[in-house]
Every structure is written in C-alpha cells, then in structure tokens.
Amino acid sequence: MPPKFTQIAFTSTVKAIQEKHGSREMYERMAARGPDNDTLIPRVADFIRERDSFYLGTVNDNGWPYIQFRGGPVGFLKVLDDRTLGFADFVGNCQYLTIGNLGDSDRTFLFLMDYANRRRLKIWGRARVEYDHPDLVEDLKVPGYDAEAQRAILIQVEAWDWNCPKYIPTKYSEEQVAEMIAPLQARIRELEAQLATDQP
To answer: What is the pLDDT of residue 19?
Structure first.
C-alpha cells in the first residue's frame, strides 16, 4: 500500500508534472516500499509535542486556501491518540476564517516547523470544531497559560510526511537563545568577580 500522503497529494496532474520533470519514477519506487504514514508513530508524536506553533491550512467554499499561524506554549497541540490531535482554540481577532472554512470542508493541513534543527512535518487531516464540550476544552488547555479558550478543535490524521531540510533557515527562539548563552553569561560573571577580587 503506498504512503497515504501520496494518495492524497499526488493527483493525476501532479503525477504528470513529475513525469515531465523526471521525478515520477523515483516517487513510484518510494511509494512501493514506503510505510503508510497514517498513524502518529512515537518519533512523530514527540516532534508534535515539542512544538510551540504550527501553520493550519483550510479552504473556503470558493476554493481559496487560507493559512493561519497558531502559537502557544510548548505542547499546546496535543497528541490524543495515534490518529488524533487536538488543541484549545484561543480568542483571536474574531474573523473566524478558519472556523468558517471548517464549516464548509473538514479537510485541513498542518505544517510544523523546527527551525533550530531544520526539520518540518506535514500533516493532512480532517478537523472538527467542538463548541459544547467544556470538559474537552479544559483538558486541552495548558496549565499556567492564561489565554482564553473558546472551543476545541480536533483533527483526525489522514497522513503525514517529513519534508527535506533543504532551504530551511536556522532560527532559534528567545528561550533557546537564552539557554545557549546561559553558560557564557555565567562564565562572564565568574571572570568579572575574579577580576574584581584581583584588583589592588
């Protein structure tokens, strides 16, 4: 069985272009021996739990795509089981474009980035908005994070695939930079203290 993402993403038009540019044979070989990639294996689940943001794609009833950035504390996108993701939907600018689009089509796409390690994960799924389940919203909240959550969004994973690291710029979060320079700052303080005591 070919990987699920190839069944979703490799339309006849895509295959024709792959054929034209010489990559179709390579992807046919990959599909013939690749795993299904439709369940969240431990390595994928761990990657998701470590993220503090992701991009969420939907499409409206006019056929136009929409990409929304979602951010929060590390782990706010939760792995509920090996086929389901969920997150508390925080109060935003009240345009409701994503929510509205999901009312027309449950098809969604998640793009998760790890800039520091130049990794990216693509997830195809079907999403539903849960309005009347306060216990579920409470379960999806991150303790200590005070953003107001209005509803829950659950995503049934259909397929996932890693993207190659080529062209991903290396970037670090403020927290990652602080962690990296902490030993240097400690050493500077140590040397400054030593200089101060060595002064006549």
So the answer is: 94
pTM of the predicted structure, to 2 decimals: 0.89
168-187 pLDDT per residue, tens: 999 999 989 999 999 999 99
Q: Is the pLDDT of residue 35 over 90?
A: no
Report the C-alpha gap between 33 and 12 in whole angstroms: 20
* The pLDDT of residue 95 is above 80: yes
What's the rounded Cα separation, in Å, for the pair 55 and 23? 27
Helix (H, G, I), strand (E, B) or coil at 40: coil
Domain ranges of the chain: 1-35, 37-169, 171-200
Three-class secondary structure of residue 144 per DSSP? coil
Nearest-CA neighbor of 108 among 54, 59, 161? 59
What is d(CA 123, CA 145) in angstroms, rounded to the nearest whole number?
Answer: 26
Round to whole Å and give the CA distance between 161 and 135: 32
* Burial bucket for residue 62 (CB in 10 Å: 0-12, 13-18, 19+): exposed
Q: Right CATH number for 37-169 from 1.20.1330.10, 2.30.110.10, 3.90.79.10, 1.10.3720.10?
A: 2.30.110.10
Q: Which of 88, 78, 67 is closest to 151 using CA atoms?
A: 88
